[in-house]
Amino acid sequence: MTQSTRQILRLSGADTRDFLQGLITNDIALTQKGLVYAALLTPQGKYIADFFLQADGDDILLDADAAQAEMLVQRLSMYKLRADVTITPTQLYLHRGTGPAPEDGLADPRHPALGWRALRDTPQSDETTDWDALYVSHMIPRSGAELTPDSFILEMGFERICGVDFRKGCYVGQEVTARMKHKTELRKGLAKVAITGDAAFGTAIVSDGKAAGTLLSRAGDEALAYLRYERATGEMQADAATLRRIDDA
Predict the structure, then answer these.
(1) Percentages helix, strand, coil for the chain, rounded to the nearest 5?
(2) Rounded to whole angstroms, how far apart are CA atoms 189 and 152?
């Protein structure tokens, strides 16, 4: 990981927690217990950004993809209006690992295999974990890859990876997300596939001559894919690659 991969923002001010609670998909109160993973959505329920939140005294530290940080600050500032909230960049750096957590480490809430995360004053220089393989193995979507402006978070597995709370009350995009949870059956979404042969990220997946989805991140002989579930049965093709859903293999 390069030091520019993540941007850590500090949110301070008397209204910070109430402000975030009305915007994010998860419950800000959970920062009292540890690290919180959440997303910001459009009013139509589509993905804007995902991030981690942790308490730092009365402040909240927001750990975001550096590529999204400027946009995220602009979006949060648009909602801030007259709320007593100040958003400032920090000089903190993300450290992470899969072994025993250090004293300042907090468990990654998305999956136990993802270990811990800690925010420190200096960049990490000793990272050797194959994170790409872990993300694919445990079906963890990432911004700029699986997570795009067209994504609905429930299709991307946010309930499974503890990124959404259905009891917290209203937030931007909540109505669409709740309706997808309670009134519809998901027919498309993130899945893991076994893959042999070559195919690039974004290649269309075909099953029995019909469009079945899109190939996403790959690690070795496994990959993530966005699939139409009713068509993703048996052997599928993506360019020169052959695929099969893992749970069908």
Answers:
(1) 20, 35, 45
(2) 9
For 64-112, the pLDDT digits (tens) are: 999 999 999 999 999 999 999 999 999 999 999 998 999 999 999 999 9
Q: Where are the beta strands (DSSP E) in the chain?
A: 6-12, 36-41, 47-56, 59-65, 86-89, 93-97, 106-107, 116-120, 188-196, 204-207, 210-219, 222-228, 236-238, 241-245
Identify whether the C-beta of residue 243 lies closer than 8 Å to the C-beta of residue 205.
yes
The structure tokens listed for 115 are 């270990």
Residue in 92, 71, 84 with CA at minimum distance from that of residue 9: 92
Closest CA relative to residue 79, chosen from 38, 10, 19: 19
pLDDT in tens, 99-146: 899 999 999 999 999 999 999 999 998 888 999 999 999 999 999 999
Cα 170 to Cα 27, 110, 166, 248: the distances in Å are 10, 22, 9, 37
What's the token pair of residue 73? Answer: 């600050």
In a 13 Å sphere around the CA of 73, the CA atoms on its Cβ side amount to 17
Cα separation, 190 vs 155, in Å, equals 6
| pTM of the predicted model over 0.85 | yes
Delineate the domains of the chain, giving CATH numbers in brackets: 6-182 (3.30.1360.120), 188-248 (2.40.30)
Rounded Cα distance, 14 and 44, in Å? 29
Q: Which stretches of 100-222 are DSSP H helices?
A: 131-137, 174-182
Determine the Cα–Cα distance for residues 25 and 11; give it in Å rounded to an integer. Answer: 17
Q: Name the region of 238 (left: φ>0; alpha: ψ -120 to 50; beta: rest).
A: beta
